[in-house]
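Good morning,

Attaching, inline, the backbone tokens for the sequence recovery test we're adding to the shared suite. The designed sequence is right after.
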């Protein structure tokens, strides 16, 4: 008889723009694979073909920018499609999903950042995901001024990145508050070190939350 499959786990990476999430998501996925876990590495917005189109509408500056409520609903449409097509099937077969941004980005950006009611945004996130929620959320915490310098070196700022330092400071405060409210799910990792140092800290956080996978 086949062994009982490892239950799927959803690990999300969160943080402001320029915190290095994408690089770290790839490194974390590789490390989990090396530990023998099936990993689906994905992102929001843009983790499905429909999501790619929604992402373009959301991040490209200019044109007819969405009003705040339209912006929220576009992120949620991306998420509903992504959970149904990618995340939920992976979890159902026992895979681990490493997702670059998820519900907490919406709570931070559209709630604290744009000023929408946090409880309403959270309830709509649950509607969009059908209740799928992260098992572990890794917050890559970075001083907004340092993050801005990193982004300046990269060029091609998207619509959110053009919001300025006060917006990024509201995000940091929101992530800090969310992390403090749910310490079982959240781990904060300082993102100001070099790539290897941050990756090691993230792995320690994963091992702390899921001792079995760390061996
Ligand atoms: P990315 O650059 O991390 O891929 O994300 C694109 C932008 O979308 C980023 O500035 C954060 C923003 N965002 C929201 O405002 N709300 C959300 O729900 C998500 C997932 C991302």
């Amino acid at each position: 008889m086949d062994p009982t499959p490892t239950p799927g786990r959803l690990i999300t990476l969160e943080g402001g723009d320029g915190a290095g999430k994408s690089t770290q998501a790839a490194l974390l996925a590789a490390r989990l694979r090396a530990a023998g876990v099936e990993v689906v590495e994905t992102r929001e917005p843009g983790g499905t073909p429909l999501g790619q189109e929604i992402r373009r509408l959301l991040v490209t500056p200019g044109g007819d920018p969405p009003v705040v409520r339209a912006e929220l609903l576009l992120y949620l449409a991306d998420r509903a499609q992504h959970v149904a097509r990618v995340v939920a099937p992976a979890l159902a077969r026992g895979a681990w999903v490493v997702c670059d941004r998820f519900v907490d980005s919406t709570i931070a950006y559209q709630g604290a950042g744009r000023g929408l009611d946090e409880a309403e945004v959270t309830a709509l996130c649950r509607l969009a995901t059908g209740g799928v929620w992260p098992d572990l959320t890794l917050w890559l915490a970075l001083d907004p001024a340092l993050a801005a310098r990193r982004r300046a070196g990269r060029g091609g700022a998207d619509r959110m990145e053009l919001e300025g330092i006060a917006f990024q400071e509201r995000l940091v405060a929101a992530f800090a508050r969310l992390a403090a409210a749910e310490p079982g799910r959240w781990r904060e990792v300082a993102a100001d070190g070099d790539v290897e140092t941050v990756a090691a800290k993230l792995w320690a956080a994963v091992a702390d939350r899921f001792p079995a996978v760390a061996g």
